[in-house]
Structures are given as structure tokens and as C-alpha cells.
Amino acid sequence: MGLVIIFAIVTVLAAYGGFSALKNKNFLGAFWGVASFFVFGWFTVMTIINSGFPTGTH
């Protein structure tokens, strides 16, 4: 379940990095940031579908 949280954090950071690089006109950095966003976003969605959303403690 922790994997979903890690993937989600990396996805958010990749989106921020890609947007920041695009704002600074760093197109190579923006490409890798956006590509990482899509790849890790896909991993996040598929992990949630496969393993379920992490729940709190009982």
C-alpha cells in the first residue's frame, strides 16, 4: 500500500518539475518532467486499480 503513496508523490513532483521547467523555457527538462508525470501517473492509477486504495488503520 505504501507503493501507491510513493508513486503519487513522485507523480505530483514530476508535474511540478515539468511545469517549472516549461515556465523557465527549459524544454528538455520539461519533456522529461512531463514524460515522468505520465509514466508514474500510469503506475499510480494501475497500482490503485490492482491493489486498491490504501485505507487508514482500523
Automatic annotation (TrEMBL):
Keyword Transmembrane helix attributed: yes
Pfam families per the UniProt record, alphabetical: DUF2759
Organism (species): Neobacillus bataviensis LMG 21833
Keyword set, alphabetical order: Membrane, Transmembrane, Transmembrane helix
Taxonomic placement: Bacteria, Bacillati, Bacillota, Bacilli, Bacillales
Transmembrane segment boundaries: 27-49
InterPro entries (alphabetical): DUF2759
Protein name in the entry: DUF2759 domain-containing protein
